[in-house]
Amino acid sequence: MSAQTLLSGGDKWFSYSGVVFGDVSAPASIQLILIPNTGLRDTLVQIYPNFGLPVITSTGNQLGISVKINDVEVIHEQDNLAYAHSSTPFQLFVPRQSKLEVISLNTSGNNTQKRNCNLIGYYL
After folding, report:
1. Domains in the chain, please, with CATH?
2. Which pLDDT score is estimated for 115?
3. Residue 85's Cα: distance from chain center in Å?
């Protein structure tokens, strides 16, 4: 799932990608979440990336996360992030009516490694 779902109180929303993994033909990045329009209110978003066990643990084969707001990359993390099952959440401000995209940065050594992303947005 990659849609924005409003919670019953109307002041929060969530989205989740489900577990994603590639194969030898996987591209250099895999889109996890795409929200074309975050809505009429500014939002504080918490992003929770998660990774399965890596196939290859050598240097340079870590998966990572890229976050874009209106096609501008605002977070790019690709270090030891992918060696943790559950990574540290990111928190960021997203202006109203923004396009929000979360991308998994892939490597040829770990394109079959499972990964997913959950996020929750709090309207301000």
Report:
1. 10-123 (2.60.120.380)
2. 87
3. 14
